[in-house]
Protein backbone atom coordinates (compact mmCIF):
# COMPACT_ATOMS: atom_id res chain seq x y z
CA UNK A 1 0.00 0.00 0.00
CA UNK A 2 1.43 3.35 -1.04
CA UNK A 3 1.67 6.05 1.64
CA UNK A 4 -1.19 7.98 0.00
CA UNK A 5 -3.52 5.35 -1.41
CA UNK A 6 -6.26 7.91 -1.94
CA UNK A 7 -4.28 10.34 -4.06
CA UNK A 8 -4.42 9.72 -7.82
CA UNK A 9 -1.08 8.97 -9.53
CA UNK A 10 -0.99 12.30 -11.35
CA UNK A 11 -1.19 14.17 -8.03
CA UNK A 12 1.40 11.91 -6.40
CA UNK A 13 3.74 12.44 -9.35
CA UNK A 14 3.47 16.21 -9.03
CA UNK A 15 4.09 16.03 -5.27
CA UNK A 16 7.15 13.83 -5.91
CA UNK A 17 8.47 16.23 -8.57
CA UNK A 18 7.98 19.26 -6.30
CA UNK A 19 9.73 17.48 -3.43
CA UNK A 20 12.89 17.32 -5.60
CA UNK A 21 13.16 21.11 -5.36
CA UNK A 22 15.33 22.65 -2.63
CA UNK A 23 13.43 23.83 0.44
CA UNK A 24 10.21 22.03 -0.50
CA UNK A 25 9.30 19.10 1.74
CA UNK A 26 6.47 16.59 1.25
CA UNK A 27 4.00 18.75 3.22
CA UNK A 28 4.57 21.94 1.23
CA UNK A 29 4.62 19.89 -1.98
CA UNK A 30 1.13 18.56 -1.10
CA UNK A 31 -0.07 22.07 -0.32
CA UNK A 32 1.26 23.36 -3.65
CA UNK A 33 -0.29 20.44 -5.56
CA UNK A 34 -3.70 21.05 -4.01
CA UNK A 35 -3.39 24.77 -4.57
CA UNK A 36 -2.77 24.01 -8.26
CA UNK A 37 -5.67 21.54 -8.38
CA UNK A 38 -7.97 24.28 -7.21
CA UNK A 39 -6.41 27.12 -9.24
CA UNK A 40 -7.41 27.79 -12.86
CA UNK A 41 -5.75 25.46 -15.38
CA UNK A 42 -3.63 28.36 -16.73
CA UNK A 43 -1.67 28.54 -13.49
CA UNK A 44 -0.29 25.01 -13.95
CA UNK A 45 0.05 25.34 -17.69
CA UNK A 46 1.95 28.63 -17.53
CA UNK A 47 4.33 27.10 -15.04
CA UNK A 48 4.70 23.94 -17.15
CA UNK A 49 5.51 26.03 -20.22
CA UNK A 50 8.01 28.19 -18.34
CA UNK A 51 9.76 25.03 -17.15
CA UNK A 52 9.94 23.61 -20.67
CA UNK A 53 11.26 26.90 -22.10
CA UNK A 54 13.84 27.27 -19.37
CA UNK A 55 16.14 24.60 -20.77
CA UNK A 56 15.09 24.94 -24.40
CA UNK A 57 15.80 28.65 -24.68
CA UNK A 58 18.65 29.39 -22.30
CA UNK A 59 22.33 28.80 -22.87
CA UNK A 60 25.58 30.19 -21.46
CA UNK A 61 27.11 33.26 -23.10
CA UNK A 62 30.27 32.07 -24.88
CA UNK A 63 32.15 35.15 -23.63
CA UNK A 64 31.12 35.61 -19.98
CA UNK A 65 29.15 32.38 -19.26
CA UNK A 66 26.16 34.26 -17.89
CA UNK A 67 22.75 32.67 -18.56
CA UNK A 68 21.34 34.09 -21.79
CA UNK A 69 18.95 33.41 -24.65
CA UNK A 70 21.20 35.11 -27.23
CA UNK A 71 24.93 34.55 -27.62
CA UNK A 72 26.79 36.76 -26.82
CA UNK A 73 24.61 38.02 -24.00
CA UNK A 74 23.12 41.53 -23.86
CA UNK A 75 25.93 42.84 -21.64
CA UNK A 76 28.80 41.41 -23.75
CA UNK A 77 27.10 42.67 -26.91
CA UNK A 78 26.55 46.20 -25.51
CA UNK A 79 29.04 48.65 -27.11
CA UNK A 80 28.62 50.98 -24.11
CA UNK A 81 30.04 48.40 -21.67
CA UNK A 82 33.80 48.49 -21.05
CA UNK A 83 35.35 45.17 -22.15
CA UNK A 84 38.61 46.18 -20.43
CA UNK A 85 36.99 45.59 -17.04
CA UNK A 86 35.85 42.11 -16.00
CA UNK A 87 33.93 41.42 -12.80
CA UNK A 88 34.28 37.75 -11.81
CA UNK A 89 31.25 36.38 -9.92
CA UNK A 90 30.13 32.98 -8.67
CA UNK A 91 26.60 32.86 -10.08
CA UNK A 92 24.30 34.56 -12.63
CA UNK A 93 22.23 35.97 -9.74
CA UNK A 94 25.33 37.86 -8.61
CA UNK A 95 25.40 39.60 -12.01
CA UNK A 96 21.79 40.66 -11.46
CA UNK A 97 22.70 41.95 -7.97
CA UNK A 98 25.64 44.03 -9.23
CA UNK A 99 23.59 45.39 -12.15
CA UNK A 100 21.03 46.64 -9.63
CA UNK A 101 23.75 48.77 -7.97
CA UNK A 102 24.01 50.67 -11.31
CA UNK A 103 27.62 51.85 -10.79
CA UNK A 104 29.29 49.13 -12.81
CA UNK A 105 29.71 49.47 -16.57
CA UNK A 106 32.27 46.76 -17.31
CA UNK A 107 31.64 43.14 -18.28
CA UNK A 108 31.33 39.94 -16.23
CA UNK A 109 32.71 36.46 -15.99
CA UNK A 110 30.49 33.88 -14.28
CA UNK A 111 32.36 31.00 -12.62
CA UNK A 112 29.26 28.87 -11.91
CA UNK A 113 30.37 27.94 -8.43
CA UNK A 114 33.31 28.21 -6.04
CA UNK A 115 36.19 25.91 -5.26
CA UNK A 116 34.84 23.65 -2.54
CA UNK A 117 36.80 20.48 -1.70
CA UNK A 118 34.00 19.32 0.63
CA UNK A 119 31.50 19.38 -2.23
CA UNK A 120 34.02 17.95 -4.68
CA UNK A 121 34.23 21.19 -6.71
CA UNK A 122 37.75 21.83 -8.01
CA UNK A 123 39.13 24.69 -10.17
CA UNK A 124 38.49 22.65 -13.33
CA UNK A 125 34.76 22.59 -12.59
CA UNK A 126 34.64 26.39 -12.81
CA UNK A 127 35.14 28.72 -15.78
CA UNK A 128 38.65 29.78 -14.66
CA UNK A 129 40.61 28.56 -17.69
CA UNK A 130 38.08 30.35 -19.87
CA UNK A 131 38.82 33.59 -17.94
CA UNK A 132 42.57 33.20 -18.52
CA UNK A 133 41.94 32.50 -22.21
CA UNK A 134 39.65 35.49 -22.49
CA UNK A 135 42.27 37.85 -21.00
CA UNK A 136 45.03 36.38 -23.24
CA UNK A 137 42.93 36.74 -26.40
CA UNK A 138 42.02 40.33 -25.54
CA UNK A 139 45.71 41.23 -25.16
CA UNK A 140 46.56 39.55 -28.47
CA UNK A 141 43.74 41.44 -30.17
CA UNK A 142 45.21 44.72 -28.90
CA UNK A 143 42.25 45.40 -26.58
CA UNK A 144 43.76 44.29 -23.29
CA UNK A 145 41.75 43.75 -20.13
CA UNK A 146 42.92 46.42 -17.68
CA UNK A 147 41.30 45.14 -14.50
CA UNK A 148 39.74 41.99 -13.10
CA UNK A 149 37.47 42.51 -10.08
CA UNK A 150 37.24 39.30 -8.05
CA UNK A 151 33.66 39.56 -6.77
CA UNK A 152 33.29 36.10 -5.26
CA UNK A 153 31.34 35.96 -2.00
CA UNK A 154 33.14 37.01 1.21
CA UNK A 155 33.02 33.41 2.51
CA UNK A 156 35.88 30.97 3.11
CA UNK A 157 35.21 29.29 -0.23
CA UNK A 158 34.80 32.58 -2.06
CA UNK A 159 38.13 33.87 -0.66
CA UNK A 160 39.84 30.60 -1.55
CA UNK A 161 38.53 30.85 -5.10
CA UNK A 162 39.63 34.50 -5.36
CA UNK A 163 43.17 33.61 -4.19
CA UNK A 164 43.33 30.74 -6.65
CA UNK A 165 42.30 33.01 -9.55
CA UNK A 166 44.74 35.70 -8.38
CA UNK A 167 47.62 33.18 -8.60
CA UNK A 168 46.38 31.98 -11.99
CA UNK A 169 46.47 35.52 -13.39
CA UNK A 170 49.86 36.36 -11.83
CA UNK A 171 51.77 36.33 -15.13
CA UNK A 172 49.29 38.49 -17.01
CA UNK A 173 49.43 42.28 -17.33
CA UNK A 174 46.20 43.04 -15.53
CA UNK A 175 45.24 44.74 -12.28
CA UNK A 176 43.42 42.44 -9.87
CA UNK A 177 41.02 43.95 -7.35
CA UNK A 178 38.63 42.54 -4.77
CA UNK A 179 35.35 44.15 -3.67
CA UNK A 180 35.88 46.44 -0.67
CA UNK A 181 35.14 45.10 2.78
CA UNK A 182 31.83 46.85 2.94
CA UNK A 183 30.33 43.41 2.51
CA UNK A 184 29.44 41.70 5.79
CA UNK A 185 31.82 38.79 6.38
CA UNK A 186 30.23 35.37 5.96
CA UNK A 187 27.34 36.91 4.04
CA UNK A 188 26.04 36.21 0.59
CA UNK A 189 26.61 38.71 -2.21
CA UNK A 190 23.23 37.97 -3.70
CA UNK A 191 21.44 39.24 -0.58
CA UNK A 192 23.50 42.41 -0.13
CA UNK A 193 21.55 45.64 -0.41
CA UNK A 194 22.29 48.06 -3.22
CA UNK A 195 24.07 50.65 -1.07
CA UNK A 196 26.45 48.08 0.44
CA UNK A 197 27.21 46.74 -3.03
CA UNK A 198 27.74 50.25 -4.40
CA UNK A 199 30.19 51.10 -1.57
CA UNK A 200 31.97 47.80 -2.04
CA UNK A 201 32.41 48.47 -5.73
CA UNK A 202 33.55 52.08 -5.30
CA UNK A 203 36.01 51.18 -2.51
CA UNK A 204 37.54 48.20 -4.30
CA UNK A 205 41.25 47.85 -3.59
CA UNK A 206 44.22 46.68 -5.60
CA UNK A 207 45.45 43.23 -4.48
CA UNK B 1 14.69 49.05 -17.40
CA UNK B 2 13.24 45.85 -15.96
CA UNK B 3 14.21 44.99 -12.37
CA UNK B 4 16.45 42.15 -13.65
CA UNK B 5 17.85 43.39 -16.96
CA UNK B 6 20.44 40.62 -17.02
CA UNK B 7 18.05 37.68 -16.67
CA UNK B 8 16.78 36.23 -19.93
CA UNK B 9 12.98 36.35 -20.48
CA UNK B 10 12.57 32.57 -20.08
CA UNK B 11 14.12 32.73 -16.60
CA UNK B 12 12.07 35.79 -15.63
CA UNK B 13 8.89 34.06 -16.81
CA UNK B 14 9.63 30.99 -14.66
CA UNK B 15 10.36 33.20 -11.64
CA UNK B 16 7.06 35.04 -12.22
CA UNK B 17 5.13 31.77 -12.54
CA UNK B 18 6.70 30.36 -9.36
CA UNK B 19 5.90 33.56 -7.46
CA UNK B 20 2.19 32.86 -8.11
CA UNK B 21 2.41 29.82 -5.82
CA UNK B 22 1.51 30.21 -2.13
CA UNK B 23 4.48 30.60 0.20
CA UNK B 24 6.96 31.29 -2.62
CA UNK B 25 8.28 34.86 -2.76
CA UNK B 26 10.50 36.42 -5.46
CA UNK B 27 13.72 35.36 -3.66
CA UNK B 28 12.82 31.69 -3.32
CA UNK B 29 11.41 31.73 -6.86
CA UNK B 30 14.84 32.95 -8.10
CA UNK B 31 16.58 30.25 -6.07
CA UNK B 32 14.30 27.57 -7.51
CA UNK B 33 14.76 28.86 -11.06
CA UNK B 34 18.54 28.79 -10.74
CA UNK B 35 18.44 25.38 -9.10
CA UNK B 36 16.48 24.16 -12.14
CA UNK B 37 18.87 25.87 -14.56
CA UNK B 38 21.73 23.93 -13.00
CA UNK B 39 19.85 20.63 -12.53
CA UNK B 40 19.57 18.05 -15.33
CA UNK B 41 16.90 18.88 -17.93
CA UNK B 42 14.76 15.94 -16.70
CA UNK B 43 14.09 17.72 -13.40
CA UNK B 44 12.29 20.60 -15.12
CA UNK B 45 10.68 18.39 -17.74
CA UNK B 46 9.32 15.88 -15.20
CA UNK B 47 7.82 18.75 -13.26
CA UNK B 48 6.41 20.34 -16.42
CA UNK B 49 4.80 17.04 -17.41
CA UNK B 50 3.36 16.47 -13.93
CA UNK B 51 1.82 19.94 -14.06
CA UNK B 52 0.24 19.29 -17.44
CA UNK B 53 -1.11 15.91 -16.36
CA UNK B 54 -2.52 17.30 -13.14
CA UNK B 55 -5.44 19.05 -14.79
CA UNK B 56 -5.71 16.73 -17.78
CA UNK B 57 -6.02 13.52 -15.80
CA UNK B 58 -7.75 14.41 -12.56
CA UNK B 59 -11.44 14.95 -11.97
CA UNK B 60 -13.78 14.83 -8.99
CA UNK B 61 -15.41 11.51 -8.09
CA UNK B 62 -19.12 11.86 -8.95
CA UNK B 63 -20.04 10.09 -5.69
CA UNK B 64 -17.77 11.55 -3.00
CA UNK B 65 -16.06 14.48 -4.85
CA UNK B 66 -12.60 13.34 -3.88
CA UNK B 67 -9.85 14.02 -6.47
CA UNK B 68 -9.50 10.98 -8.71
CA UNK B 69 -8.38 9.81 -12.14
CA UNK B 70 -11.17 7.21 -12.42
CA UNK B 71 -14.82 7.82 -11.68
CA UNK B 72 -16.01 6.55 -9.23
CA UNK B 73 -12.84 6.79 -7.18
CA UNK B 74 -10.98 3.78 -5.76
CA UNK B 75 -12.67 4.11 -2.35
CA UNK B 76 -16.23 4.47 -3.68
CA UNK B 77 -15.62 1.55 -6.09
CA UNK B 78 -14.18 -0.71 -3.36
CA UNK B 79 -16.76 -3.41 -2.40
CA UNK B 80 -15.05 -3.80 0.99
CA UNK B 81 -15.84 -0.22 2.02
CA UNK B 82 -19.09 0.37 3.91
CA UNK B 83 -21.31 2.74 1.86
CA UNK B 84 -23.63 3.10 4.89
CA UNK B 85 -21.02 5.23 6.62
CA UNK B 86 -19.99 8.62 5.18
CA UNK B 87 -17.18 10.72 6.59
CA UNK B 88 -17.57 14.37 5.57
CA UNK B 89 -14.27 16.24 5.22
CA UNK B 90 -13.18 19.66 4.00
CA UNK B 91 -10.41 18.68 1.58
CA UNK B 92 -8.98 15.69 -0.33
CA UNK B 93 -5.87 15.84 1.88
CA UNK B 94 -8.13 15.14 4.87
CA UNK B 95 -9.19 11.88 3.19
CA UNK B 96 -5.52 10.94 2.88
CA UNK B 97 -4.97 11.79 6.58
CA UNK B 98 -7.91 9.64 7.76
CA UNK B 99 -6.85 6.76 5.49
CA UNK B 100 -3.46 6.80 7.19
CA UNK B 101 -5.14 6.15 10.57
CA UNK B 102 -6.31 2.81 9.10
CA UNK B 103 -9.37 2.42 11.39
CA UNK B 104 -11.95 3.77 8.98
CA UNK B 105 -13.62 1.55 6.40
CA UNK B 106 -16.57 3.66 5.32
CA UNK B 107 -16.74 6.15 2.45
CA UNK B 108 -16.11 9.91 2.23
CA UNK B 109 -17.74 13.10 1.09
CA UNK B 110 -15.39 15.97 0.26
CA UNK B 111 -16.89 19.45 0.71
CA UNK B 112 -13.99 21.34 -0.98
CA UNK B 113 -13.92 24.07 1.62
CA UNK B 114 -15.80 25.36 4.65
CA UNK B 115 -18.47 27.98 5.10
CA UNK B 116 -16.53 31.22 5.51
CA UNK B 117 -18.41 34.50 5.20
CA UNK B 118 -15.13 36.47 5.39
CA UNK B 119 -13.80 34.65 2.32
CA UNK B 120 -17.16 34.79 0.59
CA UNK B 121 -17.69 31.01 0.79
CA UNK B 122 -21.33 30.10 1.37
CA UNK B 123 -23.04 26.70 1.69
CA UNK B 124 -23.79 26.68 -2.05
CA UNK B 125 -20.08 26.76 -2.86
CA UNK B 126 -19.59 23.43 -1.06
CA UNK B 127 -20.83 19.94 -1.93
CA UNK B 128 -23.56 19.98 0.73
CA UNK B 129 -26.60 19.60 -1.55
CA UNK B 130 -24.79 16.68 -3.18
CA UNK B 131 -24.43 15.07 0.26
CA UNK B 132 -28.15 15.43 0.95
CA UNK B 133 -28.96 14.00 -2.49
CA UNK B 134 -26.58 11.11 -1.95
CA UNK B 135 -28.20 10.17 1.36
CA UNK B 136 -31.72 10.46 -0.14
CA UNK B 137 -30.85 8.31 -3.15
CA UNK B 138 -29.26 5.66 -0.91
CA UNK B 139 -32.45 5.44 1.17
CA UNK B 140 -34.60 5.19 -1.97
CA UNK B 141 -32.36 2.42 -3.29
CA UNK B 142 -32.90 0.46 -0.07
CA UNK B 143 -29.27 0.82 1.03
CA UNK B 144 -29.64 3.65 3.54
CA UNK B 145 -26.72 5.60 4.96
CA UNK B 146 -26.65 4.78 8.69
CA UNK B 147 -24.15 7.36 9.87
CA UNK B 148 -22.60 10.62 8.74
CA UNK B 149 -19.38 11.58 10.54
CA UNK B 150 -18.83 15.33 10.34
CA UNK B 151 -15.03 15.46 10.18
CA UNK B 152 -14.55 19.14 9.39
CA UNK B 153 -11.62 20.80 11.15
CA UNK B 154 -12.03 21.80 14.82
CA UNK B 155 -11.89 25.49 13.89
CA UNK B 156 -14.63 28.12 14.10
CA UNK B 157 -15.37 27.73 10.39
CA UNK B 158 -15.26 23.94 10.57
CA UNK B 159 -17.70 23.91 13.51
CA UNK B 160 -19.99 26.34 11.72
CA UNK B 161 -19.99 24.14 8.63
CA UNK B 162 -20.69 21.02 10.73
CA UNK B 163 -23.68 22.71 12.46
CA UNK B 164 -25.01 23.83 9.10
CA UNK B 165 -24.80 20.30 7.68
CA UNK B 166 -26.34 18.88 10.87
CA UNK B 167 -29.38 21.13 10.42
CA UNK B 168 -29.55 20.26 6.71
CA UNK B 169 -29.70 16.54 7.53
CA UNK B 170 -32.22 16.96 10.38
CA UNK B 171 -35.16 15.42 8.51
CA UNK B 172 -33.26 12.36 7.30
CA UNK B 173 -33.05 9.02 9.11
CA UNK B 174 -29.33 9.06 9.75
CA UNK B 175 -27.08 9.27 12.81
CA UNK B 176 -24.84 12.30 12.80
CA UNK B 177 -21.55 12.16 14.67
CA UNK B 178 -18.61 14.48 15.08
CA UNK B 179 -14.99 13.41 15.59
CA UNK B 180 -14.16 13.13 19.30
CA UNK B 181 -12.42 16.02 21.02
CA UNK B 182 -9.10 14.29 20.85
CA UNK B 183 -8.23 16.84 18.19
CA UNK B 184 -6.47 19.93 19.50
CA UNK B 185 -8.79 22.95 19.25
CA UNK B 186 -7.85 25.45 16.55
CA UNK B 187 -5.65 22.85 14.86
CA UNK B 188 -5.77 21.48 11.37
CA UNK B 189 -7.01 17.95 10.72
CA UNK B 190 -4.47 17.46 8.00
CA UNK B 191 -1.56 17.87 10.43
CA UNK B 192 -2.97 15.65 13.19
CA UNK B 193 -0.86 12.59 14.01
CA UNK B 194 -2.27 9.13 13.37
CA UNK B 195 -2.90 8.27 17.02
CA UNK B 196 -4.85 11.46 17.67
CA UNK B 197 -6.91 10.81 14.56
CA UNK B 198 -7.49 7.18 15.53
CA UNK B 199 -8.69 8.21 19.04
CA UNK B 200 -10.86 10.90 17.56
CA UNK B 201 -12.48 8.38 15.22
CA UNK B 202 -12.97 5.71 17.88
CA UNK B 203 -14.39 8.17 20.43
CA UNK B 204 -16.78 9.88 18.03
CA UNK B 205 -20.03 10.91 19.69
CA UNK B 206 -23.63 11.10 18.57
CA UNK B 207 -24.78 14.68 18.03
TrEMBL record, chains A, B:
Q: Where are the zinc fingers (C4-type)?
A: 61-76
Q: Which UniProt keywords apply?
A: DNA damage, DNA recombination, DNA repair, Metal-binding, Zinc, Zinc-finger
List this protein's GO terms for biological process: DNA recombination; DNA repair
Q: Start and end of every Toprim domain?
A: 84-184
Q: What's the superkingdom here?
A: Bacteria
Under the heading InterPro entries, the entry gives: DNA_Rcmb_RecR, Rcmb_RecR, Rcmb_RecR_Znf, TOPRIM_dom, TOPRIM_RecR
SMART domains under this entry?
Answer: TOPRIM (SM00493)
Pfam families for the chain: RecR_C (PF21175), RecR_HhH (PF21176), RecR_ZnF (PF02132), Toprim_4 (PF13662)
Report a single Gene Ontology molecular function: DNA binding
The text of the family note is: Belongs to the RecR family.
Record NCBIfam families: recR
What does this chain do? May play a role in DNA repair. It seems to be involved in an RecBC-independent recombinational process of DNA repair. It may act with RecF and RecO.
**Protein's recorded name:** Recombination protein RecR
Amino acid sequence: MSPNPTLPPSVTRLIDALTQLPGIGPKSASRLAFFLLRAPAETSLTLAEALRDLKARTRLCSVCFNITEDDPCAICADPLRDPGLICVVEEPLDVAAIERSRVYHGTYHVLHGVISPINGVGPDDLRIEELVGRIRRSAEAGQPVREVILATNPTVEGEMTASFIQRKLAGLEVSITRLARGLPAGGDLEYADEITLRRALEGRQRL
